[in-house]
Amino acid sequence: MNELAKIEFSGGCSDTPILKERGQREVFCGLTSIIWLHRKMQDAFFLVVGSRTCAHLLQSAAGVMIFAEPRFGTAILEEKDLAGMADAHDELDREVKKLLARRSDIKQLFLVGSCPSEVIKLDLSRAAERLTKLYTPKVRVLNYTGSGIETTFTQGEDACLASMVPVLSATDEKQLLLVGALPDVVEDQFINILTELGIEKIKTLPATQKDKIPRVGKNTRFALVQPFLGETAEALEGAGLRRISAPFPFGEEGTTGWLRAIANDFNVDENDFNEVISAPRARAKKAVEAAAKKLTGKSVFFFPDSQLEIPLARFLVNECGMTAIEVGAPYVHKSIVGPDLALLPKGPTISEGQDVDLQLERCRKAKPDITVCGLGLANPLEGEGLSTKWAIELVFTPVHGYEQAGDLAALFSRPIKRREVLRL
Ligand code: SF4
Fold first, then answer.
1. Does ligand 1 come within 6 angstroms of the Cβ of 115?
2. pLDDT digits (tens, 9 = 90+) for 390-418
3. What CATH number should be reported for the domain holding residue 143?
4. CB 98, CB 73: distance < 8 Å
5. ∠288-293-298 over CA atoms, to 5°?
6. pTM to 2 decimal places
7. Are strands 108-113 and 140-145 parallel, antiparallel or unpaired?
8. What is residue 17's three-state secondary structure?
């Protein structure tokens, strides 16, 4: 048997000093992630305990007319709740009772905290415990926070998945757990490749239905599919699972590195590995080459937002021939993004956190060809003549894996093309 080549995660930007900033930030809150989580978990309902602002944010983030009954909603805290003049727990119990009586399709209910519920210190874990006792075994009730106080929008998914870890049932079976909500088509592609590599038991967190929620244990290895799942990773490691450290599966290089790290852990033969990945890998290379023509030689500046910044900078530099000027991330967890940092050639400023005015000054001075940022910054920067890419689009669009590598490059080349057309 030919042993698979080991991967060394050092060099590149591994030792680049990180510019840490703590000032005003321009980010969305964690409620936003309900939009993709409710699509993935088909029998879950997300009940935000929040204000009218939270309800409006959810509605506008959904961005579409909802024809079926939605699987998210807001239990609005009125002034009397906020002033402590009413028992918010009693009101919440009444809302949940009404909701579950009307919606027999709900099997998992998430009580999602918000800024107002945190400010009045409403204990949603107590509420979740009480409601679980009332509605078990039909409905499982969990809670997490999506509050905008000190969070970014992708932390909503992290908090949601972390809330599920303590209630996962146990198994000693040897298996692979893929952690992170992926569009079904992408998840299927990964499972197909991993199955061809000979990995027999593959589970996902989150699962699409309550009865498919994985059992886990000390023989479960897990691989993150998103770099923003630090709290979930910690909870799984705390439960005795082992994480497979790898670059994230964006582009041909990232996907190959991610698959290789998993294959190493499951003792896949080098020849078998190369045989399985060679065709999709070649397709990805070709698609990126075609889509990245407009990107080669161009520069990119990342504002901190989605937490995908470091793996995406690695993709744009190594596979699309771009130069990264600054790669800003809300948090830099080296234990998680270390392999991507190691593959990112030295050069860019790596920054963590934000002081938005200072960062805007650096960006204006650098005049990047493309700026990746949140919606709040994109319009003013476009107005100043810079091309921008909304970071949130990268979370809503299927961009992982070999088959989506060309689409990922195209997402960045489109704004550049548009700016060139406008200049003609
Ligand atoms: S959770 Fe906080 S930041 Fe998010 S919509 Fe509600 S009030 Fe606004």
1. yes
2. 998 999 899 999 999 999 999 999 888 88
3. 3.40.50.1980
4. no
5. 110
6. 0.94
7. parallel
8. coil
The residue segments making up the domain with residue 378 are: 18-25+284-423
DSSP summary character for residue 387: -
Q: What is each CA distance from 45 to 101, 134, 159, 242, 331, in whole angstroms?
A: 13, 17, 15, 30, 29
- Span 153-175, average pLDDT: 96
| Domains: count for the chain | 2
Ligand 1, closest atom to CA 53?
5
Task: List the structure tokens of 340.
Answer: 């991507």
The amino acid at 243:
R
Tokens of 244: 């497979």
pLDDT confidence tier of residue 218, bands split at 50, 70 and 90:
very high
97 vs 268: CA distance, rounded Å: 51
- 57 in contact with ligand 1, CB cutoff 6 A: yes
Strands (E), 119-240: 140-145, 175-179, 202-205, 220-224
Whether 166 maps to a domain, the answer reads no
Ligand 1: centre distance to CA 146 (Å): 8
Atom of ligand 1 nearest to the CA of 58: 5
For the chain, what is the total number of helices (H) and then of strands (E)?
17, 14
Please count the other Cβ atoms lying within 10 Å of the Cβ belonging to residue 204. Answer: 21
Helix runs in 31-108, H state only: 34-40, 52-62, 79-82, 88-102
